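call fold(seq) -> tokens
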Amino acid sequence: MRFTSEQRLDDGVLEREFTLGEIPGTLWTPGSAGSSGAAPVPLILMAHNNGLPKAEPRLVARARYTAACGYAVASIDAAGCGDRPRTAAEEQARAELRRAMRAGEPVDEIFESFIGPLVEKAAPDWRTALDALLALPEIGGPVGYSGWTAVGIRLAATEPRIAAAGLFAGGYVPRAQREEARQVTVPLLLLLQWDDEGNPRQRALDLFDAFGAKEKTLHANLGGHTGTPWFELEDGNRFFDRHLK
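ret:
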């Protein structure tokens, strides 16, 4: 892992850009992390839905707030995400998706054609980043995951270092991950926007039923896809406080 820049933000959080091979990432740590006598802090991996970039403003705001609450927070542009190169097939699928959405046509099969492979490529990059992040002296675990549901299911089901997961029901979840959800047994918080125009409500409720966790909580709020209330971030941090601190 090579840090390429750093800046101390107004809230005391240290923001550092890094590269890990071909993987670009950002790490936010609280002001006290790494100082003499300070204990290592827990880590939260934070990803935006369906491969949007790590620099997306809503993700950055969530990350900064969570870091100020005492967590190390890391986000990466995994393979095919953010500004990372995409295959011609992926670009074609995204173009077809935009066309179908403008035309009001069904889009599930188009989502399947690129979100499923995107999860398969992204999950190994997240594991690589997790290995490097946990080697830093200021980070000690445990580890939580927050954000993109499809890749979160894959990591929570297969990565034993993930101790709790907070997921957003607004992103498309491929059929394979809907089945894989039964293997997710860590404590879970699922956020649902009741009027999400791009994600059928019943599909999200069925997904919540499918999770194998004995402790799982569903928070539903009125509003569309980007209308998640800010207080859900505060509640999400309290969820992670219970399981990571």
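Strands lie at 2-8, 14-20, 23-29, 41-47, 72-76, 139-148, 162-168, 188-193, 216-221.
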